[in-house]
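Good day; I would like, with your permission, to put a structural problem before you. The record follows directly beneath this note:
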Amino acid sequence: MEDTGPKIVFLIRSNPCESHRPAEAIRIAAGLGVGKNLIKILLSGEAPRVLSSEEEELIDIEIIEKFLPFIEEMGIPFYVERDSPGQAALKSSPYGFRTIGTEESSELLAGGHYVLVF
């Protein structure tokens, strides 16, 4: 049996154009993903904008641009809530993500040993 760490879900719901929290969440997720932790990232509200290649007004964009490729390389999945207003910015996203509804979003959050909200 494989020795894995806890399931950690990052719920990022802050607007990345108004807050540094989404960038910090991305940085922390990348750091925790290096270990045996099972990481999942759920983007809600305006937060999906962090995955857009066309966003230039993001706070701490250099942190986001540095760690997103690393997160993708590690295979950490991104989930985007279907009703998120920030989802409109994802038409040109170079990053993979899965769109989920409210019920699946709730299941994702309930399945984590830890849920970190940003």
Summary: Helices lie at 21-33, 61-74, 102-110. The CA atoms of residues 53 and 93 lie 6 Å apart. The chain has one domain: 15-80+96-113.
